[in-house]
């Protein structure tokens, strides 16, 4: 799923002059949930390709203009978890358990 070029989308929304809640109005017009659109414009979430086409049509832009350019650099693969080199240490050792201190005052 592609990432949006948030600055292009914000600039175009401002150019269209849809008022204070412009992004919310665009979301309603395109049937894209407002939270998803806000996150996509902010760069926190990817937007599906069909929604990108719908958004581009509403903003009167091409899809290529609203998508972020990855500069030909592929995404890094996700980092795989590493296995521990040795078994985990026991948490419950008998030697470490200590009871309350004895009262030794006056005892002989």
From TrEMBL:
Q: Which domain of life is it from?
A: Bacteria
Q: Which residue intervals make up region (Disordered)?
A: 69-108
Where is there biased composition of kind Basic and acidic residues? 89-98
UniProt-recorded name of the protein: XRE family transcriptional regulator
Q: Which organism is it from?
A: Amycolatopsis suaedae
